[in-house]
Structure formats: C-alpha cells, structure tokens
Amino acid sequence: MAAPSKKTLLILDTGSPFCSLAADRFNSIAGMMGLPWEAVAKSIGLVGVENLQAAGRALALSKASDQPVCEERFGEMAKAVEYWQIGPKDQGQIDQQVMDLVARLLGGGERPAGEKKKAPATPPVKEPAKKAIVLKVGRETAGRHGKGVTTVFDTPLSETALKELGATLKSRCGTGGTVKDGRIEIQGDNRERVILELTKLGYQVKRVGG
Description:
Layout: E1 7-13, H1 19-33, E2 37-43, H2 49-54, E3 57-60, H3 63-74, E4 81-83, H4 94-106, E5 134-140, E6 149-153, H5 159-173, E7 177-180, E8 183-187, H6 191-200, E9 204-207
Parallel strand pairs: 1-2, 1-3, 3-4, 5-9
Antiparallel strand pairs: 5-6, 6-8, 7-8
C-alpha cells in the first residue's frame, strides 16, 4: 500500500531567526511520530494566497510583528494563519511549541486554546492514540580504548527517523556521534543528558547498565 502523501506546514518567514529551526524541529519530531506532515519555511514575500490555500496549515512565529504583515498581504486569509509568540530571544520555546503543535495534529488538529475557529461541518475524526515508544539507553567502553559512548538502542524507528534523532541528540549534547546498525552512539558518558532530551521529545526511556 502506498504511503499517504504528506500535508504541508507552511512557516511564514518574516525575518525571525528561528523559522528554519522550527521547520527542522517539526520535521524531526513528526518523522519520529509517524505524522504525515512536512514543514517548509518560506519568505512571506514569496508566498501568495494560493500558497496558503494549498498548505494544510500555515503559521507565523510572532503574533505581534507577523499578524499585521499577514493581514496586509493576505487580507481575510490571514485568519487561517496560526500565530505563535516567539520573541527574538525565545529560542528555548521552539521545542515546546513544536511538541504542542504535533500533539494537536495527532489529536485532530485543534488550534491552541484562546484562538477562535469556525466550527467544522462535521466533528473531526481523531486518530487512535499511538503507543508510547520506549528506547533503551546504555553505555559501552569495551574495545574503545577507554573512550566510552552512550548508546540508544532497541528502537522501532525507521532509518531516516533514527538519523534525525541522532542528529538532534548530538546537537543538544554538544558532541559527536554516529548512527549505525540500528542504534545511536553519542560520544562520552552522556546518559543523563540523553535520557533528559529523549523524555522532552516524548519518548519513554529505559536505562540499561550501571
């Protein structure tokens, strides 16, 4: 059976330094959760009303600065845009906002509390709850000349999702690593940090070994 085509999350770039980051974070988490969506960050100057209509969803990162621009450019269609409240120093909020959006999409695509929307003609059909993914985290030193690595293994993730997760963990741990033989290796003893970051991403984690 052919895989379902992905819907587009259009992130309107009006100059925020975090648009590409938000798109990358969304695609990484959506890939790991099996969500059929793909985020694309695009300069608002290159976006027309037809692009908004074609996208499954559109958002802008700063309501205060972006909503007036969208209203001027798109008129009534600006009401279809979801507006976040990410300021120039709020990079740390990106992951939380992305996780909230992914959770809403998995639960039927509701907008954040407080945002008005038109009542659908028929109630949305919610997807069944997905079983939590459990990942094992351990440490290996054998055959590494005393230089141990933190490992994430026994994962049910696809190769692509595993590589994306590995890249995210390397970035957040500030160290190198690799993905091979169906598992992630992060240089050094970073078990506590890896467990923390995996938990933030919504995984259940089982620590293996001492």
